[in-house]
């Protein structure tokens, strides 16, 4: 079915441009028509909300336990959770847009992914599987410690002899 001269049609104008022409049940949209895709807005909002909750948790733990925050520190727990939050929100948001899924699935799936990741990360930190230093870093620390010890010995020996 197409339009012919003299047909009565209904046009929808958005921002000064005709975006939809319709006649009865037939409807034709242009490329300028606004798209209703709130999935990415939901993904960005979910990331912002999760980031705010993470900052609130770290902010609440710091005054409550200033000497021993446990695992609730920026490194390694906070860094990994921010990475997981960003990746989960981006992947779930883009997948929902491309698949045409409803926007309400985005916060639900992002929250579930971050919650499961936080649980696994907390468990691995508690068991000592994550957060270990690399052997190369330990070797460098030992060399620095030895050099500092030698410097202290020399300083103490010089102070004893008065040769400053």
Automatic annotation (TrEMBL):
Identify the keywords attached in UniProt to this record, alphabetized: Membrane, Transmembrane, Transmembrane helix
- Organism superkingdom: Bacteria
What are the transmembrane regions? 40-59, 80-98, 104-122
Q: What is this protein called?
A: Integral membrane protein
